[in-house]
Amino acid sequence: MVGEAKLIENRVGKPVSTDDLFRFIKSVISDEQQEETGPFYVLDLGATRSLVETWFHNLPMVQPFYAVKSNPNPAFLKEMAALGTGFDCASLHEIETILSLGVSPDRIVFANTCKPESHIKYAAKVGVNLATFDSNCELEKIKKWHPKCELLIRIKVPEASGSAFMFGSKFGALPEEIVPLLKAAQEAKLQVVGVSFHIGTGAINFHSIQGAIEAAKTTFDFAAQLGLPKMHILDIGGGFTSGPKFTDAASAVKVALQKYFPGELADSSLKIIAEPGYFFANSPFTLATSIIGKRERGDVKEYWINDGVWGSMNILKDDHDEVICTPLTIKNPTCEGLKTWNSTVFGPTCDPNDTVLKGFKLPELDVNDWLVFHNMGAYTSSRGNDFNGFKTSAIPTYILALMPPRKQEK
């Protein structure tokens, strides 16, 4: 659900300042005519553009295919499409969504190694002709329903230690399975044009990046030894995070590519793609929640808010990254100089595990004050549900659209 677009003056392509963001949030709250305003997202399109620029500045040789599952917000997808990214889709519905934006099917990789037959048929029908596989079963389905599809063999690689999400237990051909799968594709007259991998999400271990690209190169060599047509696509997956970690990860990718694919880089015969989700989706989204209840127990202040771990904060069950939360009160909008207390913040459902924050320092707040959560775009609304009738699917997103500076009158 997309809220009414609002305009704010800012340099196009740059994230808004914190002050501008909070002015915007206050304007949304004051504009609402309801007695009780529900939670809402704010999408900063300037931050989205800035991230795309950062990607291409650091990894100019790698074309990003945004992982739609991370956040399928329509306005965000439309902006990513306009900025020229490709898209990593995992299902018929995700492909439909991206095609509805006017994106050509050659900007989509069907990056799910186990696809329902009906989804494979649909991909063939609409011309999505690049997909991943890691089993004989998948080869048989593709042979039957989409024999002209170009394929990437997904391989299991060393994963980054400390990753919030590991993929190796479910995805990727084991080293001893790679040659038999390549032979099976060859016998089925299917085109294996490259290699795909994913080192895991949320933590970058640079040895994992190097080890993964080395394993991909070994797979390229196996294909050449079997007499397959020369592979020309390398999909380095996701797992990138923003800030200094991304810069370091990008550097590790470039070093590894130069080490294992120097000739291909020199003659531009290798197409390199990636499947980032968190990197692009997380920081452009901010979540505003209001306090709906309060209780004091000793020196601890307890609050209930109108969203929680069954909704937008579902990710907190698995990902324990630091939560960035800012109070927004009615009595003291800046909260400056206020005493803080150890606080617990609960979500609205009747699940006792619906706890968003514990031992968090907050000033004393009242019902109808607000808590603003930053960096809330990745795997938040897309993973939430409507448990207890609190509908994550109904939370609106307000677009913080950017205007170029007005020309001053002489």
Automatic annotation (TrEMBL):
Keywords: Lyase, Pyridoxal phosphate
Gene Ontology MF, one: ornithine decarboxylase activity
Catalytic activity reported: L-ornithine + H(+) = putrescine + CO2
Modified residues (N6-(pyridoxal phosphate)lysine): 69
EC number: 4.1.1.17
Cofactor(s) the protein needs: pyridoxal 5'-phosphate
Residue stretches making up the Orn/DAP/Arg decarboxylase 2 C-terminal domain: 41-377
Pfam family, one: Orn_DAP_Arg_deC
Recorded family membership: Belongs to the Orn/Lys/Arg decarboxylase class-II family.
GO biological process: putrescine biosynthetic process from arginine, via ornithine
Subunit: Homodimer. Only the dimer is catalytically active, as the active sites are constructed of residues from both monomers.
Name the UniProt record assigns to this protein: ornithine decarboxylase
Taxonomy, superkingdom: Eukaryota
